[in-house]
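Exercise 7. Predict the joint structure of the components listed below.
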Amino acid sequence: MENTRTNGHGDPLSVGAYAGAILEKRSPVTGEKLGEFPITAREGVSTAVARARAAAPAWRATPLQERLRTLGRIKDVVRTHGEEYARRISEDTGKPLVDSLLTELMSVPLFLDYYAKTAPSVLARKKVSTPLMFPGKKSYIEHFPVGVVAVISPWNFPFQLSMVPVLSALIAGNTVVLKPSEVTPLTGEVISEIFRRIGLPEGVLEVVQGDGSTGAALAESDVDKIFFTGSVATGRKIMAAAAKKPIPVELELGGKDAMIVCADAHLERAARAAVWGGLVNCGQMCVSVERILVESSVHDRFVALLEREVGKLRVGGPDEHADVGPMTFGRQIETVERHVRDARAKGAKIVAGGQRMDRPGQFFQPTVLTDVRPDMEIYSDETFGPVLPVMRVRSVDEAVRLANDHQYGLVGSVWTRDVEKGLEIASRLECGQVTVNDVVISVGNPTLPFGGVKSSGFGRYHGPEGLLAFTHQKAIMVDRGTAATEPFWFPYADKYEPVRDLFHGLLGGSLPRALFALNRLRKIGGASAR
Ligand code: NAD
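Solution:
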């Protein structure tokens, strides 16, 4: 049974075989129903994985330059249809059109250009050194695709967080089954459409729409690696599913990113950065500013600036050209409300916002909280909403200790006019990326590896690691094969003494002694026929 519907833009869309239940999509801006999407059931997932497996040998055998050329056509598609896609992503998520173009669609040309330049050398076979005790041999390292990769993605950046891992895996020679978030199925359709437009061979990318049950079926299916972006709770389930086979997983999970504002920071810049870095995408970012640690002497001035900047923000849907949109996932508002309530009850002060907005849709006021303490949920747990929690600290050392003493370690930022000092603080932070006097931006730089530590997950993508993550490494050692035997092979008779000389020659740093011993061994072993 194949379910076919139109996407409202005229194209027929195949949205997965063997669909069972239906998921209903509503607008985060108005609450109106936008469409119904079949949930791909376990059989449909197996079919998709089998198609991806069947397509794997041919795609892997396709020369890298040809793979890059085929995928490079996506740039033309995105250039031609980008503004329409931005509208559809904004309709799906509620985010401003500026964000859909800048933070979602722009990722595609950025990463495609970067990998077009770097993939040939990153994936090429490399010659490496061979120790002296193995004379006449050559050593190489090469990489080969893992096979079929499952990419399971979240709703906050439903395009970018699907496309970048999918493209990385495809460039590295894998075929892929993508499971986009059930919260943002319209973006899942945009992605299917883009790949259909470039004429990718059948089965190279399969998209299965659905909820957690579809994701679970995919994690348990016949795939060779799972690349997961989402919550810690689901990450644990993914790992458990992968452990049964076992297959490798990469987990890109939550964050509670610390922003350290030193007394010598450019406060105006830091305040604007906090407002953008904490409230862009309505704060629904794994790399959002979620804890602002400010040195005491500048705390009050910084908070006043925050209040001023937050006061300027326009909140609304994409059609209202707002700065901050609604929350994409309705239930996330309950988490935000719970965190704000808990913080208030424990003594935090609300400087701005603090509640749901009195209008249809999923809107929460941009919020600034001060007097935040580590025992508050707003400090200990990921909020994933439009809230800036501020905490006064006595010193930079206290800020670094607090930043590190946390379950999460994804990204951080440091604010000081002394760049050397900023770098030194950056080195002390336990997280995957740090910016000095800037915010979030490092995530958009395709040359920098991205990923977290602790509960923020493990593994890295972007940068060279982003291709290697989808490969296995293979070590190769080569001998010309002309000698009848080798110095270290049987028989061992008469070899103890020269082996001992070799041992002491190498460990004692006496090259002539080691070389002499090796020569003796070769003669005893009959390898002089080389
Ligand atoms: P989620 O864990 O609820 O869902 C993520 C994906 O997993 C969805 O596609 C979902 O359908 C699927 N899923 C749910 N249950 C599953 C199961 N049992 N087996 C397999 N798949 C399953 O996360 P979310 O709410 O969509 O995303 C928000 C979270 O993602 C936040 O914690 C955020 O910090 C994190 N995130 C991390 C990064 C990063 O790069 N580190 C980026 C963005 C978001």
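Discussion. Residues 1-19 have pLDDT under 50 and may be disordered.
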